[in-house]
Amino acid sequence: MRPTLERDSPVPLYQQLAGHLRQDIAEGRLPTGVAFPSERKLMARYQVTRTTVRSAIGLLKQEGMVVAEHGAGSFVRDPKADRRLVDATQLSSARLSASPDGDRTGSGPVRSFRVIAPIEPATRRVPATPWISGLLQVEVGTAVLLQESVGYGAEGIPSLRRAWVHPRVERELGLAEADLDGQWLPDLLASRGITAAEGEDVVEAMMPAPDLKRVLAVPDGVPVLQLFRVMKQDALVVAVIEVHLPADLTTLVFGRTTLGR
Amino acid sequence: MRPTLERDSPVPLYQQLAGHLRQDIAEGRLPTGVAFPSERKLMARYQVTRTTVRSAIGLLKQEGMVVAEHGAGSFVRDPKADRRLVDATQLSSARLSASPDGDRTGSGPVRSFRVIAPIEPATRRVPATPWISGLLQVEVGTAVLLQESVGYGAEGIPSLRRAWVHPRVERELGLAEADLDGQWLPDLLASRGITAAEGEDVVEAMMPAPDLKRVLAVPDGVPVLQLFRVMKQDALVVAVIEVHLPADLTTLVFGRTTLGR
DNA sequence: GAGTGGTCTAGACCACCTT
DNA sequence: AGGTGGTCTAGACCACTCG
Description:
Two copies of one chain form a homodimer.
Chain A: H1 13-26, H2 39-46, H3 50-62, E1 66-69, E2 73-76, E3 84-87, E4 119-127, H4 130-136, E5 143-152, E6 158-165, H5 167-173, H6 177-180, H7 185-191, E7 198-206, H8 210-215, E8 224-233, E9 236-246, E10 250-254
Parallel strand pairs in A: 3-10
Antiparallel strand pairs in A: 1-2, 4-5, 5-6, 6-9, 7-8, 8-9
Helix pairs in contact in A: 1-3, 2-3
Chain A binds a DNA duplex through α3.
C-alpha cells in the first residue's frame, strides 16, 4: 500500500523492491521463520510484474535470507542461526555415521537435521591433481589411493570427506584397496600407530557444484566450507583429509574456545 | 545445432541447458576466460526463449562458473584459479593498505586486482552483540570500542577488518577513540607490548549482504570467508579481530605449509 | 551502429501444499 | 479447491561495449 517504487530511478525496480523487503526483515516487520507475502500479493502491493517480484526475491535467496518452499510459501531465514561449533583439528578422525542421531553429543538440543543419502567409505586409485599433489608432496599425476564417504559428522552436520594416502605410507603398511572399503582411513592409520599430531590445515569456501549441492542437501544461497588437513609424521606427509561442510551449519574452530554461543 | 533439449522431460529446460553448458565447459569446448555463445545465439541453437537461456546462465553464475559483463558478453571462469595462500595467523597484524601494490611481497606475479574504495581505520563505540560478547567474554550489550577498516591486505586481497577491544584493556592502556582514528588497533597494541601470541581462530563462510558485496567488490556466485581471531594474553581475551575475505581469492592456511601451488 | 547483457511487461500452464 | 511457488512464452526497451 504505502510503499512505492520509483519508476524513474536508475536503480532497477527489483533491486528497490529487494531493498524494501530487506528492510522489512531487518526491522522485524517480517519476522524470521514465518510468513512472507506471496508473490501475487507483492505484485499487487507494488504494482509490478511477477517477474520483477521474483527477481527481487531471487536476490534475497542468493543472500541466504529467504528460502522458498514449493506450494507452501517463502520464509525468512536467519543466515547465522543454525551454526554449530566444529573443532577443526578433530574433524578428520571420527568416522561419518549414517544417521544424525549417532553423533548426538548430548550437549544441548540439536534441531532440524538435513536428510541426505549416506555413502559408505569407497576406495579407488586416481592420478593426483595439481592441487592434491602439492599438499601430498608427490608428482602431479602420481596414482594415489582416494577414499570417499558421505554421512553425518560431528554435531550431525552432513559432510563429504575424502582421504588421499601418500604412496610411501601405502607401501610401508601394505595397504590394498580391499582393506580400505568400508573402513574410514584415518581410523585404520590410527590402528597402526599413525596418529598425526603434527599437520596443517587449509580452508577455502565456494558455491557448491550441483552434484555436491545435492549430495549434502545444501540450500540455495549457502556456500560450502572446504577444509584440507595435511596429516604429518616426522615432518613427512602421511595423508590428506578433505572435508566439505555446508557453511550455514558450521562454525570452524581452531584451538580450544570457551564459547557458549 | 545438434544439441537438443527434451521438452517432455521432468527436468526443466533451463536445467537441461545449464547441464549442457556445464559439460561444454568441463570438456573444454568452452575454454575458460574466453567467449560464450550470446544469449540470442543460444535461443536460436536450443529453440527456447531468452528467459530460459538467462535462467540457465543464472545457475552457472550462482556456481561461480560464469561471469557476465554488460555489453561485452559472458565468460567462463575457473572458480579456483585466482586463489592466493593467506597465512591465517598473520592476518590480524599488518595494516590494510590503500593500494594493492603496497603489499606486493615480490614473490610471483600478482594479477587482476579488484578495485575497491579503501576506508581508513575509524573507531566508534557499540554494544556487544551476542556473538561478539561470547568471543570477547563480556556481558551482552557492554559498550566496547569497535574499529573498522577497508583496504588491501596480504597478497593484495581486498578485505574488511574489524577490531573489538576488551574494556579491561581499554582501561589499562587509557585508550581514547581519538587515539585510534587512523591507526590500526593491533599495531597500537603491539607498540604497547601486547603481541598476543596466544589465541584462537574461528572461521565461517556466507554469501555477502549487498553492502559487503559492494565494499569488497565481490562478484556474483562468490562467498565471503569470515575469520575471527581471538587475541589472548595470559589466558585473558585482549581483543577480537574480524577479517572478511572474498573466497574466490583466498586459501586460508593454518600452520606453515610448503605449498608451491 | 551492431551486438551484448539488463530490466520489465502480460500473459499461460504446471506441480505442490494446505484445508 | 484455492493458493503458492516453478517454469516458459513472446515480446519490448534500455545501457553498455566494441570496432
